[in-house]
Design goal:
By secondary structure, this protein is of the alpha+beta class. It has 13 helices and 16 strands. The strands form three sheets. Strands 9, 10, 11, 12, 13, 14, 15 and 16 form an eight-stranded mixed β-sheet that branches. A six-stranded antiparallel β-sheet has the order 3-2-1-8-5-4. The protein has a two-stranded antiparallel ribbon with strand order 6-7.
Length: about 400
């Protein structure tokens, strides 16, 4: 097959990938291998794009023949580093260039970016960047320029890229950009679904469970955390200070849930409702232990936060119970929420109310305490508002409940 035919074959392959659900890391790795397979002397390649994610402002894939493709993610704080501002990527973006080429050796060498000196020292002889612009949501790299991709290609061949190599890389850029757009759009959708709904609910929504009433009954450990005195704090603190407090509070009280494999389903003001599903190979004891580990981590994080800022009004309660819940879509057809409903959800909320009276930061039910019986002491059956029968509640034996004294009264 002619060189032109080989390039056309790669373009057709890229179009086929764009009609499916391509994984961008795998797509780039396969593309680099195919280009190398038709004789393009690639020893290094990179692909960069901005993304819509609460933690990351850009993602990048590096490829070389020895290690394959590796994904890297860059936080929002990394954008204005000196290295970035002096990079060829920044130059291409700010000048709206479609391509940039730099010979690294010989009479035509031009090393006008710091990184090019590093590439030359590593043995690279020629460097090419290609860029395509397209729009996904409202992600922007710079004002007036939407999302897109920038690819860089480097070779160690003594003579650099040939005219045929450059033609091949230029020709595949358009079809490659189309496939990347599909892959990036898919990543953004998944990121947003997981961020706002959680991994399980997000996956269900993306799978088509978007009608009111869609869902299923499951058993789960239900975890409820609530900030104490939030009404007074909201009224007495400056808005910026209160928002900073909320950030610290959620970092302490809610992040450990995610770290232990739980899912936060809803934020009700300053309260958070989460579950640890009991399904498949995950038994009730394992889910309960995960919830208790999250609770312990939350209290340790609070201690660390107070060590750094002793006057911080950071008090919260945690209630944990287990039972059957309906996990699915509730609300009106035009505005749904994927959440849980059931008697145990009401129970943990009422346990939280009881914690104010009992003067304890942590309350759990008998089923939860049973997984670590030596660590818990019974308070006996307690009457909870709106719960038909008294519920036996347990408090921690090891008195690490350091902020119990901040509550209404100490437990007897």
């Amino acid at each position: 097959m002619s060189h032109d035919g080989l390039i056309q074959e790669i373009e057709s392959w890229l179009i086929d990938r764009s009609l499916g659900e391509p994984d961008i890391e795998r797509l780039f790795e396969q593309l680099c291998a195919r280009l190398a397979g038709i004789g393009v002397p690639l020893q290094r390649a990179a692909l960069t794009w901005p993304t819509l994610h609460p933690l990351f402002q850009a993602e990048q894939i590096f490829w070389n023949p020895e290690t394959g493709a590796k994904l890297h993610q860059y936080s929002h704080a990394n954008r204005q580093t000196e290295g970035w501002l002096r990079s060829p990527f920044y130059h291409v973006l700010t000048h709206g260039l479609d391509r940039l080429r730099r010979r690294l050796v010989g009479p035509d060498a031009l090393l006008d970016f710091d990184v090019l000196h590093e590439f030359k020292e590593q043995g690279y002889t020629d460097y090419l960047m290609t860029s395509s612009t397209f729009r996904i949501a409202e992600v922007q790299q710079f004002e007036g320029r939407g999302t897109g991709i920038i690819a860089s290609w480097a070779t160690k061949r003594e003579t650099g890229f040939s005219r045929g190599d450059i033609e091949a890389l230029n020709r595949i850029q358009r079809s490659f950009a189309v496939a990347c757009r599909v892959a990036i759009q898919q990543r953004v959708m998944v990121n947003l679904a997981h961020t706002y709904l959680g991994p399980t609910a997000g996956a269900k929504a993306l799978a088509g469970e978007i009608r009111r009433g869609d869902g299923s009954k499951i058993r789960a450990v239900v975890y409820y955390v609530d900030l104490r005195g939030s009404t007074h704090l909201a009224e007495s603190m400056e808005p910026d200070a209160y928002l900073t407090l909320l950030k610290t509070y959620f970092d302490c009280a809610a992040q450990p849930v995610i770290d232990e494999g739980g899912e936060i389903l809803d934020y009700v003001g300053d309260a958070a409702l989460a579950i640890f599903p009991i399904e498949g190979d995950i038994g009730g004891a394992e889910a309960a232990r995960a919830a208790l580990r999250a609770m312990e981590a939350a209290l340790l994080r609070r201690e660390d936060a107070l060590a750094a800022a002793p006057d911080l009004p950071l008090r919260f309660s945690i209630s944990i119970a287990a039972g059957e819940v309906m996990f699915g879509n509730v609300g009106v057809p035009a505005r749904l929420s994927f959440s849980v409903i059931g008697a145990v959800v009401n129970e943990v909320a009422r346990m939280d109310d009881a914690s104010k009276i009992l003067g304890r930061a942590v309350l759990v039910t008998k089923e939860i305490a049973a997984v670590e019986p030596d660590c818990w002491a019974s308070l006996g059956p307690q009457v909870l508002a709106g719960v038909p029968q008294p519920v036996e509640l347990f408090i921690r034996r090891c008195e690490r409940d350091a902020f119990s004294a901040d509550y209404v009264r100490a437990a007897s």
